[in-house]
Amino acid sequence: MDSGFYAASAGLRAQSQALEVAAHNLANLNTAGFRGQQASFQTLLAIARPAVPNALNLAINNFGVLEGTHLDLGPGSLQDTGNPLDVGIEGNGFFAIQTPQGTRYTRNGSFRVARSGELVTATGNPVLGESGAIRVPAGTVSISSDGTLSVNSAVAGKIRLVEFAPETKLTSEGAARLSAPSGSELRARQTSVRQGVLESSNVNAISAVMTLIGVQREAEMMQRALSLFHTEFNRIAANDLPRVS
Fold first, then answer.
1. What is the pTM of this model?
2. pLDDT digit string (tens) for 163-198?
């Protein structure tokens, strides 16, 4: 019974964590450049080296836990906005941006010009060029496919585009911002940009809702199991323990 109780507790904790992941995906359905996260599970043997490693022992001591999450790096769709400072990425690359925590990466190309004249993200983080921040003078902005930004036909800078090796561990920091291991970025070679468009979130709304419903049901099952164990423990305490001499 103890093993069942702890297995249900571990299961509820794992499903609660998965619920947070699913809810986060749904909350960012309309976030440009957002990359959905997918939860993965594993079993954890409560008794690392059981004295009797038989099938029953393994069955009752394998607890389900959340192994972690991984990013879905599939592309979103490009949607026309008509805003000359909106930039969408075609390919696997990312924009590099400067944040208080250091260099970060995003596919959200919703840019604007700050009062200082710098090109920044919607949240005010400087967009990095190949030589640092990009200053945008007044005039008509044009952005070529390689990220070169021109104003009134004069080059103002080039947006820094980077790629990562397939095995690189990218970590979501919320919304559409990612961090990467130091020194892992590569110069973009198979990435281009389009001016006047934004990439939508790559989360499928129907799939995300179905995942959320499924995780909620699993969590409810774990809650009912814990309630049953609690009731049984109370019965034993009230009826059986007093008989023990």
1. 0.74
2. 999 999 999 998 899 999 999 999 999 999 999 999
